[in-house]
Write a structure and sequence with these properties.
Strands 7, 8, 9, 10, 11, 12, 13, 14, 15, 16 and 17 form an 11-stranded mixed sheet that branches. The N and C termini lie far apart (about 60 Å). Helices cover about 35% and strands about 30% of the residues. It is built from 14 helices and 17 strands.
Length: about 425
């Protein structure tokens, strides 16, 4: 019997859930024309049935019983916008086992449990779609899986956390210190009361794990993503970056190499002329290099109710089209290669190194000797005027292997003239 309507179950009615519901209701007619069938939200799972949702909801649409969604044969698509992994993972696996296509915005769940989820989707001939899990409304996952599928992707890197980009933008524009900008970001609602996931780089790590798995057709476990946050970035580092012709951004970086793939998150100096340098405030941008397409960049809002809901509903529409054509699961897991994920010590970059040293003759020479012994070539050196008995050295290296830099720094820390290795930041985006 030909379908007259596709019914949807919604898990969660928080910020993103409300956006999803609004789009499905407000744009119902245009969605119907584009999909070829009407979409109807039949049930919404919530923790409290009494809470005021700020929406005009039909009577009986809310439920606190998961079974009313996953056990309902009329519901064909389940949309998960609860967040977290417990008990969300169990809910989603149950929906997939019951043969329902799933759309999720949950980066934590996809990054940590993607293999189990894709296996369940494949076994039950379902769609598992997760465009909104990375970069909000920017259509980067669909682009990598479909639009750029003819390419061998060489690099994916970008700004994929709006909180840290907002903070670094403010630090750059105002010369503010990290702690002051963090308080402002929390006051503006851009940072959580516990900001660790953002400023520690963990949010970006989950996103680059997902993107690199798709780009390189190989599963990248979250545990293999080298992760470093922005907590050590100071106003001095921002000022030196500007003086040297760079800006500092927290980047997720993934590169394909003959030996394997490298995947990392860390603060990065990028040239002011690079397209990512101009991406400010809470915006995200992802730069992709393919062997056929060359360089492309995707820019937009990486979070928020409506941008994220936009990506979720687009996935719902794709899942509905597949059901209409009876081809659910047509684009499943693309991790058909099994390439090694390289250790961070095997990666190559240029480096900015800021040292606090004793202000006396021969210090620079002794430091340069250590770098030379470890095959680290210095591109430039800035020595600031001494304050009291200490001076500050800022070094920029040529492109070198990470392990060589780390070995050199271990020896430099032992020099009596070196008071502190104040910061080490990688330099990317230069040929």
């Amino acid at each position: 019997m030909e379908r007259q309507v596709i019914k949807v179950g919604l898990l969660g009615l928080g910020t993103v859930g409300r956006g999803v519901y609004r789009i499905l209701i407000d744009n119902a007619e245009s969605i119907k024309q584009r999909v070829g069938i009407e979409l109807e939200v039949k049930k919404i799972l919530v923790r409290s049935l009494e809470k005021n949702r700020g929406l005009d909801l039909p009577e009986g649409i809310l439920t606190s019983n998961l079974g009313e969604i996953v056990d309902d044969p009329e519901i064909n698509i389940v949309v998960e916008v609860l967040g977290g992994t417990n008990p969300t993972l169990d809910y989603v696996l149950e929906a997939l086992r019951k043969g329902k296509s799933v759309v999720t915005a949950n980066k934590d769940m996809v990054a940590e449990h993607g293999e189990r989820l894709f296996a369940a989707a494949q076994q039950n001939n379902c769609d598992l779609l997760f465009e909104a899990s990375v970069a909000g409304g920017i259509p980067i996952i669909r682009t990598l899986k479909q639009s750029l599928a003819a390419n061998r992707i060489q690099e994916v890197f970008g700004i994929i956390n709006g909180t840290t980009n907002y903070m670094l933008t403010k630090m750059t524009q105002e010369g503010s210190e990290f702690d002051d900008v963090l308080k402002e970001a929390q006051a503006q609602g851009y940072a959580e009361s516990d900001p660790t996931a953002d400023v520690g780089g963990f949010d970006a790590a989950r996103k680059i794990a997902i993107l690199s798995s798709i780009a390189f057709n190989t599963r990248v476990p979250l545990s293999r993503v080298y992760t470093e946050g922005i907590t050590k970035i100071s106003a001095e580092d921002i000022a030196y970056a500007n003086e040297l012709g760079y800006v500092i951004k927290l980047l997720g970086i993934a590169k394909s190499r003959d030996e394997g793939v490298e995947v990392r998150v860390h603060p990065t100096f990028i040239p002011k002329a690079h397209p990512l340098a101009a991406v400010g405030d809470v915006f995200n941008a992802v730069f992709v290099r393919g062997d056929a397409v060359g360089d492309t960049m995707f820019y937009g809002r990486g979070a928020g109710e409506m941008p994220t809901a936009s990506a979720v509903v687009a996935d719902v529409m794709d899942a509905a089209r597949d059901l209409v054509r009876n081809v659910p699961g047509i684009i499943g897991c693309t991790c058909f290669e099994h390439r090694p994920v390289l250790e961070v010590g095997q990666t190559f970059s240029k480096y900015y190194i800021r040292l606090k040293v004793s202000d006396k003759p021969g210090v620079l020479a002794s430091i340069a000797l250590v770098f030379g012994n470890k095959e680290v070539s210095l591109k430039s050196v800035i020595q600031k005027e001494a304050t009291g008995k200490t001076a500050e050295l800022v070094l920029v290296t040529h492109r070198v292997q990470e392990q060589n830099v780390q070995d050199a720094l271990m020896d430099i820390k032992q020099l009596s003239s070196v008071i502190e290795v104040a910061n080490v930041i990688r330099v990317e985006g230069e040929e």
